[in-house]
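quick q for whoever's on today - can somebody do inverse folding on this one?? i tried earlier but teh output was garbage lol. tokens:
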């Protein structure tokens, strides 16, 4: 899957969901029915990062589907 461009993704790899406190790797996104469901996350709950450590430093926990 190609990385998302434009608002709010801007081509960055790591997405922090402030609603669930999980970080997702968009390059390894699980798109199955019970997967990450990135498209369902409201834009106001999205915080994007270039690097995994940045999201971890902000207190996000790894998604158990795309960051096993």
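ok took a stab at it. sequence:
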């Amino acid at each position: 899957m190609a990385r998302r461009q434009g608002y709010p993704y801007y081509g960055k790899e790591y997405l922090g969901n402030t609603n669930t406190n999980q970080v997702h790797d968009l390059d390894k996104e699980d798109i199955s029915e019970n997967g990450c469901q990135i498209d369902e996350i409201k834009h106001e709950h999205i915080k994007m990062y270039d690097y995994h450590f940045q999201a971890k430093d902000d207190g996000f926990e790894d998604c158990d589907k795309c960051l096993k």
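fwiw The chain has one domain: 14-62. also The chain is about 10% helix and 20% strand. so keep that in mind when u check it
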